[in-house]
């Protein structure tokens, strides 16, 4: 018996040496075997570039630098600055050495370099068209204060507690069309809507909505659904919880992915303005509703902005207050047909989120006055210096400058409202502007 047990143990020992590589091969085959396609949207997806939005950000990259120079010049006495001091002051704004002078010369429609008649020193100031654009933007910002009040009320209504940190709103004030002094011109001026207080536990200032208005709890996507239902006659059951999906060019859509998107479109969800604190969110169905609600919250957040875009980092400031997921970038990449994330124009450090349905061919479908005023500066930036009529512009500008010793533009010039632009109201409508953008754009991006 002992001899039989010893023989059997030796037999299995020798067999086990030959079975190990076989089991290893079988495990490799099962692990590399393609899994069956599921009907859920993949969690991790690669970003597909859309050059229309990237080109938009490249233009904004230029205008952002021009804004810095404009603020620098306007902060100086008489709104002029010596060329000898320009490079020193520009380095405080993050520009490299000897970069300021070359940058100013690229945009003769925005900056003007002239020689002082007495001192014989070169100075830099803003052109008449640049002053007109600034005045138009200021006027549009003041006229839009009622819309900004409504926008801020809707933002507070989307938060869990009806309150937001003042600093978070201040950082994103330009995107939502709020003036720089919105704490006084909007919050304190309308005490029937807002309340400003200091939190004792965090020592931070908070804005709180006084009373929620049910008439403001209608989302932008709900209005679009009604238009789709009335104009195109789409089935009410198919469009009840759906979003407008436009995938970027080159995005691969398989059969199973299309089925997953169709199923996701029919998943019900809670409104961004609805209080979900009383619901049990532990079930799988509740989690699906909350995920789709997060898409609706970001969609509504972008709809409230002036240009239907905002950086991902500023959306993250409202993450805790609006129940948004932790990994926002991966979450938005799941829905590239609704949103687009661009990393251009910010050195790859910031991510700009666009609402795809609001744009067509790189332009806003329903522009507002503040958006048009900001795009006027982009028009001035995109005009080629070779095609600028500098001499005629300088003569007329010097004549106006002598009438106003302080260097401010006269009110009758502001009332003309950009008559010198020759009817070019939107960027990209004129073929020459596109050619200039393509020819002159490449040299400026590398300089940043």
TrEMBL record:
Disordered as annotated region, ranges: 418-448
GO molecular function terms listed in the Swiss-Prot or TrEMBL record: RNA binding
Residue stretches making up the PORR domain: 48-383
Top-level lineage group: Eukaryota
Biased composition (Acidic residues): 433-448
Lineage of producing organism: Eukaryota, Viridiplantae, Streptophyta, Embryophyta, Tracheophyta
Matches recorded under Pfam families: PORR
Name of this protein: PORR domain-containing protein
Organism name: Prunus persica
């Amino acid at each position: 018996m002992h001899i039989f047990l010893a023989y059997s143990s030796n037999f299995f020992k020798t067999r086990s040496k030959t079975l190990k590589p076989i089991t290893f091969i079988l495990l490799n085959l099962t692990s590399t075997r393609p899994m069956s396609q599921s009907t859920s949207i993949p969690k991790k997806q690669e970003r597909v570039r859309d050059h229309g939005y990237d080109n938009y950000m490249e233009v904004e990259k230029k205008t952002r630098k021009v804004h810095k120079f404009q603020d620098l010049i306007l902060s100086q006495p008489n709104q002029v600055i010596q060329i000898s001091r320009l490079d020193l002051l520009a380095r405080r704004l993050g520009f490299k050495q000897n970069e300021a002078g070359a940058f100013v010369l690229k945009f003769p429609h925005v900056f003007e370099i002239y020689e002082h008649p007495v001192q014989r020193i070169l100075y830099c100031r803003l052109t008449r068209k640049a002053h007109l654009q600034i005045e138009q933007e200021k006027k549009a910002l003041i006229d839009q204060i009622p819309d900004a009040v409504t926008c801020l009320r809707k933002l507070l209504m989307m938060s869990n507690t009806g309150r937001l940190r003042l600093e978070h709103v201040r950082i994103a004030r330009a995107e939502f069309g709020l003036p720089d002094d919105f704490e006084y011109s909007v919050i304190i001026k309308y005490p029937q809507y807002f309340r400003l207080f200091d939190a004792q536990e965090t020592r931070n200032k908070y804005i709180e909505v006084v009373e929620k208005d049910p008439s403001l709890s209608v989302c932008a996507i709900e209005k679009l659904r009604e238009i789709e239902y009335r104009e195109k006659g789409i089935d009410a059951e198919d469009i009840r919880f759906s979003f407008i999906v436009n995938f970027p060019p080159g995005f691969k859509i398989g059969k199973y992915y299309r089925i997953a998107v169709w199923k996701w479109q029919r998943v019900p969800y809670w409104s961004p303005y609805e209080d979900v604190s009383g619901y049990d969110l532990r079930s799988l169905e509740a989690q699906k509703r909350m995920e789709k609600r997060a898409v609706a919250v970001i969609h509504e957040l972008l709809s409230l902005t002036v240009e239907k875009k905002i950086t991902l980092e500023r959306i993250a400031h409202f993450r805790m207050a609006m129940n948004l997921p932790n990994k926002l970038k991966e979450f938005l990449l799941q829905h590239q047909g609704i949103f687009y994330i661009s990393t251009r124009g910010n050195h790859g450090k910031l991510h700009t989120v666009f609402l795809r349905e609001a744009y067509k061919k790189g332009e806003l479908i329903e522009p507002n006055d503040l958006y048009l005023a900001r795009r006027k500066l982009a028009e001035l930036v995109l005009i080629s210096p070779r095609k600028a009529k500098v001499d005629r512009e300088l003569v007329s500008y010097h004549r106006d400058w002598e009438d106003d010793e302080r260097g401010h533009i006269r009110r009758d010039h502001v009332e003309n409202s950009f008559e010198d632009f020759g009817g070019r109201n939107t960027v990209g409508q004129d073929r020459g502007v596109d050619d200039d953008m393509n020819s002159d754009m490449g040299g400026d991006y590398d300089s940043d």
